[in-house]
Amino acid sequence: MLNFNPGPSILPAEALEEIRRNFMSFGGMSILEISHRSKEFENVLEDAKALFVELAVIPKNYHILFLQGGASLQFAMVPMNLMEKCADYSLTGYWSKKALKEAKLFGEANIPFSSENSAFSRTPKPAEISLSQKSSYLHITSNNTIYGTQYREFPETGDIPLVADMSSDILSRKIDVSKFGLIYAGAQKNLGPAGTTVVIIRDDLLKREYRKLPTMLKYSIHAESNSLYNTPPVFAVYAMSYVLKWIKKSGGIDAIEKINREKADTLYKTIDSSNLYCGTAEKSSRSSMNVTFRLKNTALENRFLDEAKKAEMAGLKGHREIGGIRASIYNAFPLDGVKKLAEFMKEFERKI
Amino acid sequence: MLNFNPGPSILPAEALEEIRRNFMSFGGMSILEISHRSKEFENVLEDAKALFVELAVIPKNYHILFLQGGASLQFAMVPMNLMEKCADYSLTGYWSKKALKEAKLFGEANIPFSSENSAFSRTPKPAEISLSQKSSYLHITSNNTIYGTQYREFPETGDIPLVADMSSDILSRKIDVSKFGLIYAGAQKNLGPAGTTVVIIRDDLLKREYRKLPTMLKYSIHAESNSLYNTPPVFAVYAMSYVLKWIKKSGGIDAIEKINREKADTLYKTIDSSNLYCGTAEKSSRSSMNVTFRLKNTALENRFLDEAKKAEMAGLKGHREIGGIRASIYNAFPLDGVKKLAEFMKEFERKI
Questions:
Q1: Which B residues in the span 65-124 are in contact with A, Cβ-Cβ below 8 Å?
Q2: How many H helices and E strands in chain A?
Q3: Which of B123, B174, B213, B242 is most buried (most C-beta within 10 Å)?
Q4: Numbers of helices and strands, H then E, in chain B
Q5: A11-33 tens-digit pLDDT
Q6: pLDDT at B321 over 90
Q7: Model-level pTM greater than 0.95?
Q8: Into which CATH architecture does domain B13-249 fall?
Q9: Given B28, B32, B194, which is nearest A234 (Cβ)?
């Protein structure tokens, strides 16, 4: 079965095999049974951290944290920790709107850009964004899973920290981490199974303290305690470490980015050269992770999805908010599978 | 290796085998790759809920939620959701103090009972607790892992909801859920791997709304969305479902409680009949989950731990806050293993 699920989603077969093979290999115990303060788990955690730092080229003045609660909890933790009085939120879809909603609980959230009027069909160009005075940060969603858009260039924010939800495109392409104040990502698309959230935070931001917060919601606490303030999601970190090893073995981010580009181009070319399919995102904002399109005759979409399922392709239905078709082709999704979908699309068009 | 870890801790061998065996059995995908909104995961979630309701005999006017963040996040969520102006906290150890600290951020936290002056050697009798006027709830820690104490009887709180952190003794003994307003438990002791937190909440408490809260921290949101407001920790819930199946197969809570009693009695008898070992908890408060003791000559404790390790017994070191010895013997810990420790203790005493 080809797994086009938008998340949780396909993981590298090789990583799954190793996760399963080493499941019981912790001194006579399972990874599910060891203490989070054991030497064994320390090795797992340090491995995962070191691989992340290497793959994403994270500078020394950043902490990397493995938390829980997904991006949804980060929507609240970001303003709780970083917003003094106001912050800017670039609105490019469902998830950035959710982030905005939480920010409003803690101060004034301004909207320097929104593509809502054009059905979130694009991300802004850097020049389109001008920040509010005294803004504590600019928040963006780097890839928009539902609308199939992605920032190709990031806004220039000067001294104002850039905060990015990279849940759906982290480690899928080369980025300059030093341009960001904070990056967060739920693991369940490009990094591993659901259950852990990666936060990469620049050290100076750990010093911000604008309000009294519950201990568990302070970035500084998790940074000081190396993600061991409380029991971390041991298995999720363990599983992620094998996905990171697979990325490294596959040639690192440069190689992954090249294949991701080829995968996405294969589908976009199929769309653009057809009379049946129609991409929903503006070309300059197209995502390499989620390829979204409609059938010009939308009544045919259910048939398309049914036949795709019969051809062993799962997860292609668009998000319940907007419908249509969405092919999620994260890092672990193979090029061969993308070619199979492209062939299927052409064949479907010929047939009808 | 006998696993006396205090948590994450030993899980039933049979459950581990099934978790591993079915790891790839989700329509050609792994449990790590399926959507949390798939039929497959719906079955996992409903299975886990139904088993929990059956085993713990949860009345119909309660919701059961599978969240993230461990008991540590519950320390904050409980007062955020349930405390109007003040609440009562019974102090019986390290973890109840941590819960108290978070509550103080949201109102007045009173202390109707504390055993801190006697090194947390006991839990209160029901008559020892009288609640503050207008208290929003009484919070207790039903089992204190570090000090080896446990509530044998629960306080009577009348109309004031009783809230219990049962992280370390949930499903280890029969309790009357209807006496509680809210029960929470990190999974990593009696329920499964680290990564999910169970919350059992009485429906009327879902209506409390005393302050504006981030969406992810509202019990009502998770109850309305059947723990699917955001991506839940899929694997942790899956693994828990096998542990719950094992409890049911073992005869349910009655059978488990009987064995737990026998396991604990075996160790307490060994302690009480020796001239070397000395229990740290008062007899009437002794825990059936964590048996804590010292050697009268404390200088011998390191030797005891070293020799135990050589005899394939791991995790017996007391918590870093207080030292000594702690045998954590949660549900999955076998009676045979407890007998082996008792024999080892007797042999060690004979030898020295």
A1: 68-73, 75-76, 80, 98, 101-102, 105
A2: 9, 14
A3: B123
A4: 9, 14
A5: 999 999 999 999 999 988 999 99
A6: no
A7: yes
A8: 3-Layer(aba) Sandwich (3.40)
A9: B194
